[in-house]
Amino acid sequence: MSNLPSEPEFEQAYKELVSTLENSSLFEKNPEYKKALKIASIPERIIQFRVVWEDDKGEVQVNRGYRVQFNSALGPYKGGLRFHPTVNLSVLKFLGFEQIFKNALTGLNMGGGKGGADFDPKGKSDNEIRKFCCAFMSELGKHIGADTDVPAGDIGVSGREIGWLFGQYKKQTKLWEGVLTGKGGTWGGSLIRPEATGYGVVYYVEHMIKYASGGKESFSGKKVAISGSGNVAQYAALKVIELGGTVVSLSDSKGAIIATTDKGIEAELIEVIAKLKVERKQLSEVASTSDFSSKVKYVDGARPWLHVGEVDVVLPSATQNEVSKEEAEGLIKAGAKFIAEGSNMGCTQEAIDVFEADRKSKKDQAIWYAPGKAANAGGVAVSGLEMAQNSARIKWTSEEVDEKLKDIMKNCFENGLQTAKTYVTPAEGEYPSLVAGSNIAGFSKVAAAMKDQGDWW
Question: Where is the active site (predicted)?
Answer without folding.
Answer: 114 (proton donor)
